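Morning. Coffee machine broken again, so started the prediction first thing and wrote up yesterday's gels while waiting. Chain of 153 residues, entered below exactly as on the submission form.
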Amino acid sequence: MDLNGKVSVTEDVTLISLNDSPANIDVIAGIFERIAEAGIDVDMISQTPPNGRHSSLSFTVSGEDFGGILEIAAKFREVNPDIKISVSSGNCKIAVFSDSMKGTPGVAAKVFKAAANANADIRMITTSEVDISMLVVKADLENTLAEIGKLLK
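Came back before lunch.
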C-alpha cells in the first residue's frame, strides 16, 4: 500500500490525562463542554474501559492551550478529588491516513512496526477506519517518520 503524501505531522501537542475520573458520560460531556466554552480545540481523545465507577480519559490540545486546560482540570478535581491529572508537553502527532486503509488488513501492523523500529516513545494512539494517529515525543519524530516511509511503500 502506497501512502506517500498521506502522512501529516502536528508539533507542540500537549497530552492531558485524567486518571481515576468518573466513568460517567455526563461528567465526560461536562469536561468537554467547559473546554469548548474556553475556546480550546481538542484533537485526539481516548478513554480506557471503566474499572468500576472510574476510568482514565486522555486527550490532546495545542501547547498554547496548556494553561487553560490546567485551570479547567483543576476545577473538575475540586468536584472529583480522586482525579489524578498528568500532563506531557512538547509532543508531536503523526497521522497516517488514506481512504484506501478501510478494509485493508495490516496497515496498523505496519505503522506500529515502523514505530517499534524507530524505538519511538508512543504516548497515545487513536484510530479510525481511515486514520492512525500516534502521539510521539519530539525527539522520536524524525526517526519514526523515516521508518513509516520505509514500511508503507
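Helices lie at 25-37, 66-79, 107-117, 141-151. Going to sketch it on the whiteboard this afternoon.
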